[in-house]
Design brief:
coiled coil, BBS7 protein, TATA-Binding Protein, WD40_repeat_dom_sf, Beta-prop_BBS7, Methylamine Dehydrogenase, Chain H, alpha+beta, 11 helices, BBS7_pf_dom
Length: 717
């Protein structure tokens, strides 16, 4: 059965956070459902749809930003009590809008995630690192997580016979709890951002949990009492955005619930289970901004199911199974189209009225601004930003999303970075020349956006060892012109990503630190050096983190405690960068460090063997690209290229793909040359020898691209 859905935009509220929109249970089997949504102005809005128009049921007064909205109710009754989390408080409303609960928690931070158990008495709340379980508003259990908590849920008690909360954490781990204790950890392939019970009830066993990650992967895990059982995981082959929301709903009407997924790049997906194994992507639809919440139900018209999504800027958009009728069909279709005509004319008159009102207010503003007593008020606007490292191409993705249209974004960096092409980006970029010497200004680029662009994605590649700040100046299309500055740290080992384990059989170099420093101090140095390390000092006396370099595939193990730190890597340049930065940080705090290191000669050869295939590929790509113009000229003059060797003919055939790839990765070859040069200098730096005079000779050997010759040069020098 082919799925055909029509888009309907119902209503716009304020800016919404993740998981803040739900559908209230319907009174009849195919009756329409009311929509309840909470926004960042603190307003809870409940409305229904009649004749295509939004009819309000209730609306609360503004307050603190609403971080989560859940439904609850007594066991075996409709789940129609509305719970909202704002700040450190949870409020409860009936479906008519009467407030029946105000619960001020003992949390010192704002609530980030909330789950209301089906019993209605159990409340699970999470701040950044803290989990709390309340029963009838009384504190029951508490847990301090090792990294930030993004989402929480609890397995259904009626199926598993015990309270089993599951936390989705930023360090690529799902933590399964029992009371206040950790039962076990489940390693997943990316930072989990959202959790949902499979099929809405945890499956037959009640133990099945679907998770979505910030790098766009989707998976199912069975959480048993003893150990986790991974069922399936879908990678992000299409390079789509991270997953923000998941729901289960039978939109196909075949008796099996489909999986509904909303992503932060605005893509809405429907997966169905054709076989008992992995889900298959059945339908997708692109909205222009991130999807904060997704629900399946019956909203617009009796008897027609639909998928409702709330976006970042507060739009509530439906994809309905109700067919869209065109002018000039049967009598019913004609009647529908007349209904549409009257709707269009009422919208036109409303628009004219609004334009007149805006014109009057603008004139009033212009007159009042001439006055000497006038005070200029700066319009506030929300920016949703995300700065993450992509494992696939070792680049940083900077996503900026604004509640109104973006006029331009200025990007400035005090460290050398490359801006890479993004296919989805329609903005016009222009570079300004900048003086890198006195001001440490290495990049000035302006992105001018087209009308109605509310989301901009940039790709940046940094150089390890060079660290500083990247700044984005965001200017939306609002009057008077205002700008927000957002800062992002480029860390010394910026291309490293957290991983669950490393290969201990590789040849490793070791860096040992000893000195009069506390656990918190050395942890703050590691946070300064490496991405994805929690800012909060870990519990316990010592900690170990594992990392992988996304560009080269080399590894790093860092273990440290009070007064002692040990760092192991198969790349000597990583150890060299750590040694320099940690020494500088300790000197700033007047701490005397005793540094010792153990260099493994075999590690240099190992790193060169990891780099060489990439070097060979990039050199071949560069050579092919340089030949394209000459070959195309030959093709024009000769008219026929059959006389060319097959390898040259294939270059002509693939010319567009080759140019596209070369354009997408500027300075890739220079980066590899730079890494090999750094490796050469670092190898001899640990021996106390300066080999910078031999670098020109090294570059000549690199042009020849001979692996054995390169290794021989490193060993002979």
């Amino acid at each position: 059965m082919e799925l055909s859905l029509a888009r309907v935009d119902y209503l716009q509220v304020g800016v919404t956070a993740q998981k803040t929109m739900r559908l209230l249970p319907a009174s009849g089997r195919k009756a329409t459902q009311k929509v309840v949504v909470g926004d960042q102005d603190g307003v809870v809005t409940c409305f229904g749809i009649k004749k295509g128009e939004a009819v309000p049921v209730f609306k609360t007064l503004p307050g603190k930003k609403i971080a989560r909205l859940e439904l609850g109710g007594a066991l075996n009754t409709p789940q129609e009590k509305i719970f909202v989390a704002a700040g450190s408080e949870v409020r409860g409303f009936t479906k008519r809008g009467k407030q029946f609960l105000t619960f001020e928690t003992n949390l010192t931070e704002s609530i980030k995630a909330m789950y209301v158990h089906i019993s209605g008495a159990d409340l699970f709340l999470c701040a950044s690192y803290i989990y709390n379980h309340y029963c009838d508003c009384k504190d029951q259990h508490y847990y301090l997580s090792g990294d930030k908590i993004n989402d929480v849920l609890c397995l259904p008690v009626d199926k598993v016979n015990c309270i089993t909360p599951v936390l989705a954490c930023q360090d690529r781990v799902l933590r399964v709890l029992q009371g206040s204790d950790l039962l076990y950890e489940v390693d997943v392939s990316g930072p989990a951002t959202v959790l949902a019970l499979n099929n809405g009830n945890g499956g037959d066993s009640g133990e099945e949990v679907v998770y979505g990650t910030s790098d766009g992967k989707l998976g199912l895990i069975q959480i048993t009492g003893a150990k986790p059982i991974p069922k399936w995981e879908i990678g992000n082959e299409k390079k789509r955005g991270g997953i923000l929301c998941i729901d289960n709903f039978d939109i196909l009407g075949d008796g099996v619930k489909e999986l509904l997924v909303g992503r932060d790049d605005g893509v809405l997906e429907i997966y169905n289970f054709e076989s008992a194994d992995d889900p298959v992507l059945r339908y997708d639809h692109a909205l222009s901004e991130s999807i904060a919440s997704i629900q399946g139900g019956c909203v617009g018209k009796d008897g027609y199911d639909e998928i409702l999504a709330s976006t970042y800027s507060g739009w509530l958009t439906g994809l309905t199974t109700e067919p869209v009728h065109r002018e000039g069909g049967s009598g019913e279709e004609l009647k529908l189209s007349q209904e549409m005509q009257s709707k269009i004319s009422s919208l036109r008159s409303e628009l004219e009225h609004l334009q007149m009102k805006v014109h009057q207010e603008r004139e009033k503003y212009q007159q009042s601004s001439q006055s000497s007593t006038a005070v200029l008020s700066v319009p506030a606007f929300s920016v949703n930003d995300k700065f993450t490292l992509n494992k696939d191409d070792a680049s940083y993705s900077l996503v900026l999303e604004v509640q109104t249209a973006i006029d331009n974004v200025l990007v400035q960096s005090d460290v050398p970075v490359d801006l890479l092409d993004v296919d989805k980006n329609s903005a016009v970029v222009s570079f300004s020349s900048c003086d890198s010497e006195p001001n440490s200004n290495f990049l000035l680029a302006t992105y001018r956006c087209q009308a109605n662009t509310t989301r901009l994605e940039l790709k940046i590649r940094s150089i390890e060892g060079q660290y500083g700040t990247l700044q984005a100046y965001v200017t939306p299309r609002i009057q008077p012109k205002t700008c927000q500055v957002h800062q992002y740290q480029i860390k010394p080992l910026s291309l490293h990503q957290r991983t669950h384990s490393i290969d201990q059989d590789r040849p490793l170099n070791t860096l040992m630190l000893k000195g009069q420093f506390s656990f918190a101090e050395i942890h703050s140095w590691v946070v300064f050096c490496l991405p994805e390390v929690p800012e909060k000092t870990p519990a316990g006396e010592s900690v170990t983190f594992y990392f992988q370099n996304t560009f080269l595939g080399t590894q790093l193990e860092s273990t440290y405690r009070k007064g002692e730190g040990c760092f192991k890597s198969d790349n000597i340049s990583t150890i060299s960068i750590l040694k320099d930065v940690l020494s500088k940080e300790a000197t700033k705090r007047k701490i005397n460090l005793n540094i010792s290191y153990d260099v493994n000669e075999e590690s240099v050869r190992h790193t060169l063997k990891l780099i060489h295939p990439k070097l060979e590929y990039q050199q071949l790509l560069a050579k092919k690209v340089h030949l394209i113009d000459a070959l195309r000229e030959l093709q024009v003059h000769e008219g026929n290229v059959d006389f060319l060797l097959p390898k040259y003919r294939s270059i002509l055939e693939e010319a567009d793909q080759l140019l596209e790839e070369y354009k997408r990765q500027p300075a890739h070859l220079e980066r590899l040359y730079g890494m090999i040069t750094d490796l050469f200098i670092d190898k001899f730096k640990f021996k106390g020898t300066n080999v910078k005079t031999k670098v020109p000779l090294l570059l000549e050997i690199l042009d020849g691209c001979d692996q054995d010759g390169l290794i021989a040069f490193f060993e002979a020098a």
